Amino acid sequence: MPSVFDTAQYLLEQHGPMTTMKLQKLVYYSQVWSVVWDDDCLFPEHIQAWRNGPIVRELWESTRGNFRIESIETGISDNLTPQNKDTVEKVLEFYGNKNAQWLSDLTHMEKPWDEAFTQGQNTTISLETISEYYSTLS
After folding, report:
1. Which long-range contacts (CB under 8 A, 24 or more apart) does 64-67 make?
2. Domain ranges of the chain
3. What digits encode the pLDDT tens for the residues 61-103?
4. In sequence order, what are the residues at sequence separation of 6 or more whose Cβ sits closer than 8 angstroms to the Cβ of residue 46?
5. Which distant-in-sequence residues (6+ apart) come within 8 Å of 124 by Cβ?
6. pTM surpassing 0.85?
């Protein structure tokens, strides 16, 4: 199974450099749509509800202090399967041209982040909640 770092690296290779906040949101939506479309999670790391939206702590820690990210040294995009890559590419087609604040605002309007954040900052957003909510949108 690919890691969040592999997924982030693939996003960067396909889209180009972006802010850390935008990368986090695209990683989130890649996981979301993998759960819905592929019936499987894309990476094993947990997503937490932070003030600015969904965050994968491990990715945040590896990019801390950087505003703009060009690559993830520990990420190996070849670890993604063709199906994984197809999902990520579809996410980029829809969300890739949006800015980080727009993506953050969108996540705040959606149940999975809101429900987890209401329980307390840094609460894990469950894959079950993601599946239940986003399945109704697909």
Report:
1. 66/20, 67/19, 67/20
2. 4-135
3. 999 999 999 999 999 999 999 999 999 999 999 999 999 999 9
4. 56, 57, 124, 125
5. 46, 47, 48, 49, 116
6. yes
